[in-house]
Write a structure and sequence with these properties.
This protein has 198 residues and is of the alpha/beta class. It is built from eight helices and seven strands. The chain is 40% helix and 20% strand. It starts with a helix and ends in a 9-residue tail after the last strand. One of its GO terms (biological process) is protein maturation.
Length: 198
């Protein structure tokens, strides 16, 4: 049993919610209880967590906080490349993360490490086309960042989402299960929103 499962069995009011805003609504309806949302995920989930913190501040919902364990993808990729056993021919980059951050954060992989990257969608044909694009780069001796998932990803990313992340979070060193500590790979709530930092 995990710690949360044990707490729920013993005495804890632990709930699974679909979104951060659902947790915020629970806090609004239960002012006598402290509601802590465990903020997990990558850049994909971070804008909604940031939005909930901003709404909690605006609406003075003081019984809501976030335990952020959110991660940032490019530093993890950098750590993989700098590992002693790195033998990577190419990256299929995550489409949903890239819909937020764009494709440009992967440029260092192509320019510095000379490894091709393709930002991929999630449909079977997306994956097949991305593999083809990656193999084509390798065969041609190219190392570029290409976007297969053009219907959702732009090089610059989603400015509104990125602005929310940058407003609420600061980038910190973070522990990754099974990997260890990766420099500047996590998101922690900034001090100015400290009352919402669990």
């Amino acid at each position: 049993n995990s710690f949360l499962e044990k707490e729920k069995i013993d005495r804890g009011d632990i709930r699974i919610v679909y979104s951060t805003l659902d947790a915020l609504k629970i806090a609004q309806n239960n002012f006598s209880k402290e509601v802590v949302f465990m903020g997990v995920g990558f850049e994909t989930t971070s804008p909604t967590i940031a939005s909930a913190v901003l709404k909690a501040q605006k609406d003075e919902i003081n019984n809501f906080s976030v335990l952020s364990v959110a991660k940032i993808m490019p530093p993890a990729m950098k750590a993989l490349l700098e590992g002693k056993e790195a033998n990577i021919d190419g990256f299929i980059c995550p489409g949903h993360v890239s819909a937020i951050i764009g494709s440009s954060p992967y440029n260092f992989i192509a320019s510095k490490h000379k490894i091709p990257c393709v930002v991929c969608g999630f449909e079977p044909l997306d994956v097949l086309q991305s593999i083809y694009m990656l193999v084509k780069q390798i065969e041609d001796g190219r190392a570029e960042v290409e976007i297969q998932y053009e219907r959702a990803v732009k090089p610059e990313g989603n400015k509104i989402a990125l602005d929310k992340i940058n407003e609420v979070f600061k980038v910190v060193d973070s522990d990754w299960r099974g990997i260890g500590n990766i420099s500047l790979s996590g998101l922690e709530i900034k001090d100015k929103y400290g009352q919402f930092n669990a």
